[in-house]
Amino acid sequence: MIIALTTLFGTLIFGGSVWFCLRRYCPQPSQAELLERRFGRGKPPANERFLERYRPHPSKSRAAVCWIEQGKQHSLGAKVVDLSDDGARIKSSSPLEPDMSVVLEMPHYRLAGTARVRYCRKTALAYSVGLSFKGGLFRIP
Q1: 31 & 66 share domain
Q2: Is 47 domain-assigned?
């Protein structure tokens, strides 16, 4: 029994000494090196957003975007690409100006909400528009 305890105690002391020396004398990787190890060279980080995104089925992703400009109401058909508690990404046939206020209506889910356009980028066939909700979504009849 004494031999087993002595062996265990010696192993713990030796292992602790080795760990301490390695931590002290081996250089720690930088933040850039850690990211490169994690994601690979030149690759963007994976989606690490706090809120989970929901991707609606294509048949249920139809939406309407409405806004008022110079006293006139405008509307535009769109498709919801992804949706979270604080925003959405949509595809539209026409561009929207950043920082403009819009109302997003999703009739299939009976949801609507006011949002601000964060960005609008031209893609191959449409415009990709990022929306940031100004409050929670609400139910529509």
Answers
A1: no
A2: no
Judge if 66 and 132 occupy the same domain: yes
Residue 72 belongs to a domain? yes
Residues 96 and 69: their CA atoms lie apart, in Å, by 11
Do 115 and 81 belong to one domain? yes
Chain segment 112-131, per-residue pLDDT in tens: 999 999 999 998 889 999 99
Average pLDDT of the residues in 77-86: 90
DSSP 83-100: E-SSEEEEEESS---TT-
DSSP string, the chain: -HHHHHHHHHHHHHHHHHHHHHHHHSPPPPHHHHHHHHH-TTPPPP---SSPPB---GGG-EEEEEEEETTEEEEEEEEEEEE-SSEEEEEESS---TT-EEEEEETTTTEEEEEEEEEEEE-SSSEEEEEEESS--EE--
Q: What's the pTM value of the predicted model, to 2 decimals?
A: 0.62
Residue 117, domain CATH = 2.40.10.220
**67 and 114 co-located in one domain:** yes
